[in-house]
Amino acid sequence: MINIGCQVFITWQIPVGPLLKMPNKIILVDKEDNEIGTEFKLKAHKEGKLHRAFSIFIFNSKGELLLQRRALKKYHSGGLWTNSCCSHPKSGEEILFSVHRRLKEEMGFDCDMEEIFSFIYKARLDRGLTENEFDHVFIGKFDGTPEINKKEAEEVKWVSYDFLEKDIKENPEKYTYWFKACYKKVFELTKGKI
Predict the structure, then answer these.
(1) Rounded percentage of the chain residues whose pLDDT exceeds 70
(2) Cα 114 to Cα 134: distance, rounded to the nearest angstrom
(3) What is the C-alpha radius of gyration for the chain, rounded to an integer number of angstroms?
(4) Do β-strands 51-59 and 130-141 pair in parallel, antiparallel, or remain unpaired?
(5) How far apart are CA 135 and CA 31, in angstroms?
């Protein structure tokens, strides 16, 4: 599932309107990421169905990672720290389009991004939900100030790897499961790229 050699740099025009009004269905996949159907997002999480997702890690020129603290009212993992942005492509939507769309919607900016690997994880969450994701991990670079969507994130901060490593050891309950499962590999694979 590792896709290190892929470099995709695309500038996207993000429409508002019809796409955002589509029913909130996500893409169900098999263990090879082949689409096998769709399901409403909440139902897929209640039933623990494997589905396509993405996690975005944005770095600045100092090599610091942009973290967000999820909005308290999110349907799961509210108030926890996690990677810069994460979500699911909608049914009928290409993943690269989704990545750029969601970064703009959540953080108020867009940038070039590259997929560096993918992985599958399954975790029981709060509110009786289960994450079971085929997660595509993307990296990008941005040196500005995010304009966060308060419906998605409470706050953001830039952190170094050393700070993150220490804080996760001391306060693991403050971070999302999927972030803790992949952040070390992200830092390892981004050395020299950012």
Answers:
(1) 85
(2) 17
(3) 16
(4) parallel
(5) 11
16 falls within a domain:
no
- The pLDDT tens digits for 69-112 are 988 787 666 788 999 999 999 888 899 999 999 999 999 999 99
Residues acting as catalytic residues: 86, 133
What lies within 8 Å, CB to CB, of 52 at 6+ separation is: 26, 27, 28, 29, 33, 35, 88, 89, 95, 133, 134, 136
Q: How far is CA 164 from the centre of its chain?
A: 17
Task: Note down the domain range covering 182.
Answer: 24-190
Token representation of residue 92: 């009928």
In a domain, 32, yes or no: yes
| Identity of the amino acid at 158 | W
Contact between residue 108 and residue 145 where contact means Cβ atoms under 8 Å apart: no
Q: Work out how many domains the chain is built from and give that number.
A: 1
Specify the CATH number for the domain of residue 160: 3.90.79.10
Residue 4 falls within a domain, yes or no? no
Task: Indicate whether 87 belongs to any domain.
Answer: yes
DSSP-derived letter for residue 78 is T
